[in-house]
Amino acid sequence: MATCAACHGKLELEIEHEEETGDYEAMEGSSASNTNTTTVPDDVELNCGCHFHWQCLLNAYQITQCPNCSENIATVSNSGVDEQILCNLHNEGGLQEGLDILPLLVEESYLRAYPEERKARAFLEFCREGDVQAVFELLDDDGGEDEDDGAEILVPMEIADILQYQDPLGSLYSGLHIAVTSEKVEVIWLLLLIASGLEMHRFPPQVLQAAEQLGADRLFGVHGELLDIRTLRDADGQTAAMLASPSLGRIFDTSVLSVAG
Fold first, then answer.
1. DSSP letters for 13-45
2. Which of 81, 218, 204 is nearest to 139 (CA)?
3. d(CA 172, CA 132)
4. Phi then psi for 51, rounded to 5 degrees?
5. 3-class SS at 74?
6. What is the pLDDT of residues 180-229, one digit of tens each?
7. Distance between terminal CA atoms of the chain?
8. How many CA atoms lie within 13 Å of 5's alpha carbon, on the beta-carbon side?
């Protein structure tokens, strides 16, 4: 039976679940919740044949070499241009064969080198997913995360820095670039409301109502000027407005993305 090449443990992970107990048990003085443990697979099989726990692989990862046998584990994608690292990943979600984990490994390696950018990169991912609530809560957070069970503490960042953060691993896209290319209309409106000079009458009433419920407000610079993320340009010199697709234009007034719009 294969074991992890790094820690030599079983290729499993124990996950704890808390379950609420009944009212009778609580009255009898027992705990209000019970902790149950579930064992699930945790096996990353690289194309060299070595197996790792996912976290063990992240801890030992060396770009395109297996951290155990030093074999080159990178291959060329079908396009003939991009590198990839294919593996068989078996976890609680099942078995995924031929999965390219290079983007995930590059991301984790970058965050180990620049942990202060973790919060900004989470912001980009929320923009990509279209999770308006998560975007707002991240921006509204004061950076005072409590330490819990050894969890990593995010390095505080100024809201303006997060909103203007441009992905060095992804063509210098900002959150607005990502929301536009992903066609996440609700996130686009939220970002424009918080960090642009777009006139308030250009916002639909339902957007203003939702923003009021969230407590979202405009962000001003240290000199009282409005922050305007519409002026940010990616690695190709393009603003978010330049990346708007015709399909986005059918569900969203893309003229608001232009500073002169």
1. EEEEEEEEPPHHHHHTT--SEEEEEEEEE-EEE
2. 218
3. 22
4. -115, 145
5. coil
6. 999 999 999 999 999 999 999 999 999 999 888 888 888 765 555 678 99
7. 63
8. 19
